[in-house]
Amino acid sequence: MSGGRGWGVGVPVQAHPALAAAASAALDAYTVATTEHDRAALAAIVADGADGTPTMRIDVLVEDAILGALARHPVNVLTEETGWVDHGSAVTLVMDPVDGSANAAAGVPLSAFSAAVAVDGVFTEALTVWLDTGRSWWAGPGVPSSLRTSGRRDLAGAAVSLLRPHPANPPAAAAWWEVARRAARVRILSTSCLEGALVAQGATDAFADAATDTHRLVDLAASVVLAESAGGAVRDVFGRAVELDTDLTKRWSGIVAATPDLADELAEVLSTAYRAAS
Question: pLDDT tens, 202-216?
Fold first, then answer.
């Protein structure tokens, strides 16, 4: 990592070998996929993922390359499309090969590879790589993190990234607008892992799913390590623990915030507004 900025470029030399192999394969496969295929081909739905949602071709191209690279690293893998791959290891790699698939397929340069390492069920290391630029955020065991959040404690005046509002879900839409009303700035980037990394870097104060239960573990695992190593916190709007679970149909409404105080306030504001509108 580069001093002062909190982020680096490419795959850090300190990274766990399996994590490094996965990230390197993702960067290479993403470059090849976006060079050799047009937008329609990349966005084509080719399967259903392990989480039950449609899988785009770009997801398959990148994930297949990663799984091939991981053949030399017999760790367990929990990944968006294939799901749970059990090698009987104490080490598990929880990853989203292309977070922000719709952005990536459309040519919008906002997508990321993101993964966390869990040892005996506890997240210990994480790496998120912005696929279009190579910018990366890493935190690991025994190494002081250069990441620092903004330190903001209050929602009033905060810069917040949010998943898009869902008009068909009035309680969640009400929760979204309540946060938007209190915050100073709202962004919608459509890439949860990258938005979580930006919180850890201090570029934005918080990121949240406004009570829609959209997040899977692969969307939040890296932020657990990155944000907490930087002084931040990860919460669920409805109080559910964000921890290793191999069931990719399980959902969260995740919050990544600069401080525990801000995370708790966001959870309170969102859950209260959601329940009031239900």
Answer: 999 999 999 999 999
205 is an annotated ligand-binding site residue: no
Local structure of 90: helix, strand or coil: coil
Residues 6 or more apart whose CB falls under 8 angstroms from that of 121 comprise 92, 243, 244
Question: Which of the four pLDDT bands, split at 50, 70 and 90, describes residue 4?
Answer: low
Identify the three-state secondary structure at position 125.
strand
Q: What is the greatest pairwise CA distance in the chain?
A: 52
Q: From its phi and psi, is residue 151 left (phi > 0), alpha (psi between -120 and 50) or beta?
A: left
Residue 80 assigned as binding residue: yes
Query: Is 99 marked within a binding site?
Result: yes
Any known ligand binding at 265?
Answer: no
pLDDT in tens, 75-93: 999 999 999 999 999 999 9
Domains and CATH numbers, the chain: 8-139 (3.30.540.10), 159-277 (3.40.190.80)
Token pair 């590879």 in the structure block, residue = 113
